[in-house]
Amino acid sequence: xxxxxxxLFDADNTFLDFTSASKKSLFTTCEDYKxxxxxxxxxxxxxxxxxxxxxxxxxxxxxxxLRSLRFAKFxxxxxxxxxxxxxxNAQFLQNLIxxxxxxxxxxxxxxxxxHQYTMSVITNGLKEVxxxxxxxxxxxxxxxxxxxxxxxxxxxxxIKFFEHSYNTIPNPPPKSEVLVIGxxxxxxxxGGNNFGVDTCWISHQKxxxxxxxxxxxxxxxxxxxxxx
Length: 228
Description:
CATH superfamily of the largest domain: HAD superfamily/HAD-like
CATH class of the largest domain: Alpha Beta
Oligomer: single chain
Order of helices and strands: EHHHHHEHEHHEHEE
Number of helices: 9
Shape: globular
Structural class: alpha/beta
C-alpha cells in the first residue's frame, strides 16, 4: 500500500533542467541583440532575476511587471541602454522554449511513477513558456493537471495556489496522501507545509541553512524512489 496517492511536482530544476536552459537562452538572446555575454554577465543576470522572482513570490510585483523588471534590473547592472526589457524578455522566453530539456532519465522515471500515482505539475513559471516547454518535451500525458501561477493569478507559496491545485482533479485524496516535491524551499516547501501536506525538498546537494523543515530531503529527483 502506497502512503501517497498524489504527487505534485514543481517543474524547473525539479524535472526540467532550468539552470542549463536559462543560461543557454540568455547567451542566445544576447547574441540576437548583439550584446556581449560571458560567465560574469550570466552571474549578474542570475542575481537580478532571483531578486525579482522573490519579489513576485512575496506579491510585491505582478507577473506583468516581472516580465519587464527583471531585464530592466539586469540592463542597469551591466550598463546596457536602448533595449526594451519587455521585448528582450519575450525573445528570451521564446529561446527558452527551444532549448528546454528534462534531466537525463527524468521522463522515463516519471512515466514509471504515473502507473502508481496521480501526478500534477505546480509551477510559478510564466504562461508563455511553461505549458509549451512541457508540450515540446512530450510530457503532457504524465500529468493529470498542470497549474501555472501566471494563469491563475496567484503564486507559490501562497496558500491559495495550493487550494486551487488541490481542486484540479476529481475526488482529491486526503491531504495526508499528498506529497509536494520541489527544489525551492520558499515557494515549494513553505507553501506545501502551510497547506498541510508533506513536502520533499530536492536539494541538489545544497545545504539547508534556513529554519524551513521539509518532510523529506533528497539530492535529486531519482532519489524520490527511496521515500515512496
